[in-house]
Structures
1.
Amino acid sequence: MHEIHFDRFEIEDQSVRLYGAYFQGRIQRLAGAWRVLLWHRLEDDKKGSWAVLPQDTFTVDISQQDGGLLLDGGQVLPLWLQLSPFEFRFGDLSAEGVFPERSNTLSVPEATLELATGEGNAIRETNDGLPLGAGMNLVLREPEGRQYFGLGERTGFLDKKGRIWTNWNTDSPRQTEQTDPLYQSHPFVMGYQEGRAFGLYLDETWRTVFDLGATESSRSVLHTDGPTLDLYLITGPTPKEVLRHYSGLVGTAPMPPLWALGVHQSRWSYPDQAAIRAVAREYRARGLPLEAIWMDIDYMEGYKVFTYDRGRFPRFEALTRDLKEEGIRTVVIVDPGVKKEAGYPVYESGREWGVYVENRRGEDLVGEVWPSPAVWPDFIRKEVRDWWGEWHRVYTEAGVDGIWNDMNEPSAFSVEGRAAREIGKTLPLGAKHGALWHAEAHNVYAQQMCRATFEGLHTLRPERRPFVLTRAGFAGIQRYAWVWTGDNSSLWSHLEMSVPMILNLGLSGVPFTGADIGGFSADTDGELLARWSWLGALYPFMRNHSGKGSRRQEPWAFGELVLGQVRKALEFRYRLLPYLYTLAYEASQEGLPPMRPLVLEFPEDAEAALVFDQFMLGDALLAAPVLRPHQTHRLVRLPDGAWRDWWNGEIHEGMRWLPAYAPLDGIPLFQKAGSAVPLTEPALFTTQAWWSSLDWQVALGDEIHGWVYEDDGEGYAPGFISHLRGGYDGRRLRLAFEDDAARPRERVTAIVHGITEPGHSTVPYSYQGDTLTIDLSSGAAELTW
Ligand code: MIG
């Protein structure tokens, strides 16, 4: 392995420039991170980014230390560098250096690249002049006891240490605990040790591989296939700070429409309009909440995007209109593959505009996916994104509310006659996206497709917030789409795995996520559906979806008992909406996910840090789902503080393991002392995010605080934050609702459990069992015992 050597440095435009015989470097100080960019000196340094937003840079003070340079970072931890050979230290993180692979020249004609895929296949590609073979490795020293979180959507548990993870978007159905990679690529990790955290983001869209102490436990190797190494060293010291800074780099999710947080029902596929109407009828006849019905690929005519099958959906517009009258929206699937068929307007207009990905001979690349033959729009180019966005008029005019982007790794069944197995189920590395090879564009194909969809919807309906769901994505995908975890199975192990998968997505800056409730492949059963519906009621995205050939799994599919259990979960979801919407707002502002691992809230609790089967919903609620069949109890780690059992009101001290009772019509849930969670009445569907009835569920504490964010739920009018504040000292309870919403409310109450009746109160209250319901409509209350 060759090391990288630099001979000298200079300060240029607030950045530290490094010069060597073969390589050059540039180091910049940003608000919460260092950017370290290294490139071969024959290249220019105009490397853009598909993920990182424009950043302010700050002046760097340099001093000499330990034979190297010490760069003072202000708010950011200092960075120590050695020029020859190149090494660096950033807090507890120390790099032995960066090592160019194989040679110092960029172009290695005829080199062979092998990409391991999840199924154990390999992609072999003779790369006629692809700038590969000049890959780079960053080698890090690994102290004992460091853990890694992040890396987006992954199998396994919460800690990502000890395995090799590949960033290469891959259509991975029938996943197991070992499958890697999956659909998304997030070359970001959060290192964590003894309460302190840092972040590492490798801003390379080429295939990258993170060996986190797997091959050698004392080292991690971050590899990129590309010719540059563009690294962000993100400062903490808390996990929350790392996530805030990382979100500052790659962006936060925009505020979603309220309805996206409601209940979604999907299946591949409801075959025709009668089937869709029947699902709507079943929901409403039983008085079950439902927000949207999803249409999978069979709504199209011959898998042609931006069409409907007029045989099976003769009156599509009437269908969406009638559903909307019941408060039910429609979401349709849109895959990237465009059927190559003469006379099909989408294909023809794309050909006219020259929008398709090309092969090396400059011809449209033709393959097969659901449509066959198919071509793929090159979303990497702006004019192609605009063209694609405009086609969504077909849906917006037909009353469709949201778009579901699937198969966008991109997945292919065959390309130019070569079968999926041979080509790793995607386009050849040497396919051309304008000036880029597919090898460089692959990982951002979906991200740019979602961008096209998002921006298209925004242009077509500027007064409404777009809603896009995607399967594949790259760092920053949250700016354009929500993410679901793809084809899981109706297995208890997949119910369990969905938790760490979603938590690590959240730690990677992707807040709005969910897994297919009930499981996609194979047949679910009633108990699994009930448990999954309760866990799903706390996923940021709550959608029951199942695959072709699997047993039906709508809430009523397993009889009255299960229906009752699922119904409670759906109703609980709607009761929680003010809290969820407030968390969505927090995500849009700060990048903190609604569903978060305990380590984010309690970084000092070493035992909580690796808990993968519990999570926090915001900072007030701790959930411990049951993830195995036939269990009536489970152990719950309660972190520091006091915790109120949501269902029976009992108070438990933290820093301990508690056996909790877990019937099928609930989920073990604990509320942190001193928090107040805003709830509303259950409803069949959402209307606006102003809660005319607001109930604050209060867990008593010396100090009490909760807040709620409200707005129109859909457009861009400003929103308002209202606070509930107060305190309780055992004899006196004070509560003040600072209502900023400036809209009349029918009812505002605070609910306190597990308390005796007060002797005196300044406001009306009711007392029943051990539950005190305090009328807060006058704003402030004081009760004494
Ligand atoms: O090749 O559109 O993950 O949710 O139902 C399968 C049909 C294509 C995969 C998605 C799944 C969807 C299915 N799709």
2.
Amino acid sequence: MKNKGLMYTVIALGIILVGFLGFQLLHNSKDNKEQTVNDKEKVLTVGVLQFVSHPALDQIYEGVKEGLKEAGYEEGKNLKINFQNGQADQSKLDTMSKQLVSDQADVLIGIATPAAQALANATTTIPIVLGAVTDPKGAGLVESNEKPGGNITGVSDQPPVASIIELAHKLLPAGKKVGLLYSSSEMNSKFQTGQAETAAKKLGLTVERKAVTSTNEVAQAVQVLSQSVDFIFIPNDNTVANAMETVTQEADKNNIPVFPSVDTMVEQGGLATIGINQKELGVKTGEMAAAILAGKSKPQDTAVYTFTKGDTIINEEQLAKFNLTLPADLKDTAKLVQTAKGDNE
Ligand code: TRP
């Protein structure tokens, strides 16, 4: 009898123990599940559409990731980046934009004007941040730079065009005619070539325009311009930037100095520019996107950020090629670079 009583007690205790452990197990797994759901809720998605690959835009994208990270949004942790490259193809840009919208990105980033325009056509509700769009208003993306009004704001990379033309005139005082090389389809270039023309005329220079419709026409355009101009100015034009090696090759053959609007293109064999740091443009774009992700700002009342500070960048090899010396007042401030190896063979 006594033993039986003990046995029942042991069995009863056993049942209680098993029950308790089972309850704990269940409870824990429920906790874990809740944890996972919470973590998932915190992962936000940024859709990035880059127009094409060229060194400047690639650097901007690197900057975008850095800016997001500095603001606390890190890929693989609390951020998913859906990156698409349109390879300068309008139908690809449109399809990719629609896809990014239907994937319900929290914020979209368009790198370069044609990419931003494609995104703008795909949504009027998801916030879009412009990564280096020269003239957001002219491209029909905002009501005004100060008060964008809709779902779009971002960073403008308006280069100091007049100062670049003045720099060219200073380095080549005997030059009388400037060639403008750009793509007819890019809004950003149309705007800047107008500014270049005004600045050139002010200095008493004449202008010859040469617009291309694709990278295939760039070599011939440089050859044609080389027949009559003393130097070539290139705005922030994606099509020409994408064919910069060709530009340098043809210009070198014909002994024509080239003044681009961006440091990366001087590193690819241009002579000089006053340029905005491309990575910094991207960092600022990433920061603006982060502020929107965090609910701290809304595109409609966030002014477009315009960079004003440019560095004077001069290619030493090109300077020597044209037997030029660095003007004394630029000695302290100009950043001297060399043509990046392998870009120009
Ligand atoms: N500003 C260009 C646009 O609006 C994009 C761009 C940024 C760019 N950096 C560049 C183009 C450098 C050529 C070279 O589309």
